[in-house]
Design brief:
The complex is a heterodimer of chains A (348) and B (273). Chain A is of the alpha+beta class and 348 residues long. Chain A is built from eight helices and 20 strands. In chain A, the strands form four sheets. Chain A has a six-stranded mixed β-sheet with strand order 6-7-8-3-9-10, with helices on both faces. Chain A has a five-stranded antiparallel β-sheet with strand order 13-12-11-14-20. In chain A, a hairpin with a 4-residue loop joins β16 and β17. The two termini of chain A are 37 Å apart. Chain B has a single domain, classed as Orthogonal Bundle (MetI-like fold), CATH 1.10.3720.10. Helices cover 77% and strands 0% of the residues of chain B. In chain B, α6 packs parallel to α11 and α12 packs antiparallel against α13. The radius of gyration of chain B is 22 Å and the shape is globular. The chains are: A alpha+beta (348), B mainly alpha (273). Chains A and B meet through β6 and α2 of A and α9 and α10 of B.
Chain lengths: 348, 273
């Protein structure tokens, strides 16, 4: 048994309208951890969250909370709270009353209630908004009320279902930092659902990548980014160049017509593999110096860098570079051993 | 500006069909047959106080019964999935496609002393019960005929309550009962109010239901008014006076409802036990 497991999913499966939406979900979530479920819409990440919250019943498998099986525990008896996608504030109550809701139900005495609500309003930066109606707030403010309303109950685990989805980019970035700060200062477990890979990488201690109701990979943001288990994960976590290749032997991979030094081993000799190279890892060099050559097809200014597409004998390379190349120019490209990621080829 | 001018036809419509008739009612109520001003008609309404009280009482009972039946129904329909919701709504609306009189006649044949229900019960040697020409029959008629007007506004308001709002309440620890008291009820109050008005107003002024299902013993204020205009008692001036008093009573009831039905008070009354 590992220590400090707070939520544990064992072989969870869910069918909806005869279709399997979750299959064989096995996951342990540690106490005080920031875990993110990441995946495209329809991958089952929200369903998994709702299983922990108690709003969806698992067809098969078990849910454990702090070592106790909670499959049959209704949502209102679970020690988790949820921040819903569309905030779901109570429209007939003001900010103060919204936050007070859970405390009242749990019969927290009035003076303590006031104290805790005050602390929460400070935490989410909404002092002075007590008497505002839920509908008189901006999206960001509603979001913060929703967070305060959940956190004020001091749950061991906070579930967040794409809470920043409706906010604009700048506000979203601010809230990401804010959420991470709250999670660390309150020392509780956050289980976060998003389809935004950047959000997942920025905030999480661990990322769970899901697709078609299954978990593809669990790991730290660095693991997921640098060592994706398959092309889907590689592609979903940021842009990447994925090429077919052959593993000549340990530390040597052939792709794009050349044999490259790499840091991967443990593949069969001449095993067919897939090679992932991040766009920022492709070095643009002169035509003579590069093992790979290609013609610059397009250049787009992206702020921090230029995004270029380079056609090399039919394969379109995506390159991020701070230096601009002219369209139509023939360039060379090189890749360092460290930046080459080898994955087993997928069937299909 | 534009809005005002496009509202003009409605203004005309309202003047011709609402304001003018009301003024006429007022005129008749305060004049004698010869057109001389008088208070006699109004003071004569006092004689019909028992009928008036009975009408209000029946209407109140019918409204309460409608509310009690319609509330869970409205909730059920509003939470139903697409096709189920449509089917249930259709079932609610369907009876309204039939003529009001026809529907009430149907109840007559059902409730009669040797009507369908009594004959059916006769097979088991139960009854016959006297069902037609009772106050119960009149109230049944009101409930049956006006039920959709209670269900529809309740359904409309409840279907606007977001399911996640209810989930949020559960998530914060509230059981179904507490979710109902703290979230569903306060959020559905506008529908309750509308429903009460939509059922109470036609119930209190009905005359056809009481005549068909109530026999002679359950004369309502609506019957009384009708008698003054079309019946043997022909006295339009008195009829107008009774109508005016009824109108005042209805308006009083509605303002009372607005006083009581304030969201905050309802909520407070329920929670601070």
């Amino acid at each position: 048994m590992e220590e400090n497991i707070i939520v544990s999913l064992k072989n969870i499966a869910v069918d909806y309208d005869g279709e399997r939406v979750l299959n064989g979900i096995d996951l342990d979530i540690r106490d005080k951890e920031f875990v993110t479920f990441l995946g495209p819409s329809g991958c089952g990440k929200t369903t998994t969250l709702r299983i922990i919250g108690g709003f969806v019943e698992a067809g098969e498998g078990d849910v454990f909370f702090d070592g106790m099986r909670i499959n049959d525990l209704p949502p209102h008896k679970r020690k988790v709270n949820t921040v819903f996608q569309k905030y779901a504030l109570f429209p007939h109550l003001n900010v103060y009353e919204n936050i007070e809701f859970g405390l009242k139900i749990n019969k927290v005495p009035e003076p303590q209630r006031r104290e805790r609500i005050k602390d929460m309003l400070e935490l989410v930066n909404l002092m002075g908004f007590e008497t505002r109606g839920a509908n008189q707030l901006s999206g960001g403010q509603q979001q913060r009320v929703a967070i305060a309303r959940a956190l004020v109950n001091r749950p061991r685990v906070l579930l967040l279902d794409e809470p920043l989805g409706a906010l604009d980019l700048k506000l979203r970035k601010e809230m990401q930092v804010e959420l991470k700060r709250i999670q660390q200062s309150m020392e509780i477990t956050f289980i976060y659902v998003t389809h935004d890979q950047e959000e997942a990488l920025t905030m999480s201690d661990r990322v769970v990548v899901m697709k078609d109701g299954e978990i593809l990979q669990v790991g730290t943001p660095q693991d997921i980014y640098n060592e994706p288990v398959n092309a889907f994960v590689a592609d979903f976590i940021g842009e990447s160049n994925i090429l077919p290749g052959v593993m000549k032997k340990d530390f040597q991979a052939e792709f794009a017509g050349h044999v490259f030094e790499c840091v991967d081993k443990g593949f069969g000799e001449n095993e067919e593999v897939q090679v992932v190279v991040r766009p920022e890892d492709v070095k643009v060099v002169s035509y003579e110096d590069g093992p790979i050559d290609g013609i610059v097809e397009s250049v787009i200014f992206k702020g921090v860098h230029y995004e270029m597409t380079v056609d090399s004998h039919g394969f379109k390379w995506l390159i991020h570079s701070t230096k601009k190349e002219d369209v139509g120019k023939v360039i060379g490209m090189d890749i360092l051993p460290d930046d080459i990621h080898i994955m087993r080829a997928e069937e299909e | 500006m534009k809005n005002k001018s496009s509202a003009f036809p409605y203004g005309v419509w309202m003047v011709i069909f609402i304001v003018l008739p009301l003024l006429l009612v007022g005129y008749f109520a305060f004049t004698t047959e010869d057109g001389a001003p008088t208070m006699e008609n109004i003071s004569k309404v006092g004689e019909f106080m028992p009928v008036l009280m009975r009408s209000v009482w029946y209407a109140v009972v019918a409204t309460v019964v409608c509310l009690v039946i319609a509330y869970p129904l409205g909730y059920l329909i509003s939470r139903g999935a697409g096709s189920r919701r449509r089917t249930l709504l259709m079932l609610v609306i369907l009876p309204m496609w039939m003529n009001f009189l026809l529907r009430t006649y149907a109840w007559m044949t059902l409730l009669e002393n040797n009507g369908l229900i009594n004959r059916f019960l006769g097979f088991f040697n139960v009854g016959p019960f006297e069902m037609i020409n009772t106050s119960g029959a009149v109230i049944l008629g009101m409930v049956y005929n006006y039920m959709p007007f209670m269900i529809l506004p309740l359904y409309a308001v409840m279907s606007k309550i977001d399911q996640t709002t209810l989930e949020a309440a559960q998530d914060l620890g509230s059981s179904f009962v507490s979710t109902f008291a703290r979230v569903i009820l306060p959020l559905s109050m506008p529908g309750v109010k509308t429903g009460i008005i939509m059922v109470f107003v036609p119930s209190v002024s009905t005359f056809i239901i009481s005549r068909m299902l109530g026999g002679g013993g359950n004369l309502l204020i609506g019957d009384l008014i009708e008698l003054q205009f079309l019946g043997n008692a022909y006295n339009p001036n008195l009829g107008a006076a009774i109508s005016l008093v009824l109108l005042v009573i209805v308006l009083l009831c509605m303002s009372l409802l607005n006083q009581f039905g304030g969201e905050e008070e309802m909520e407070g009354a329920l929670l601070d036990k």
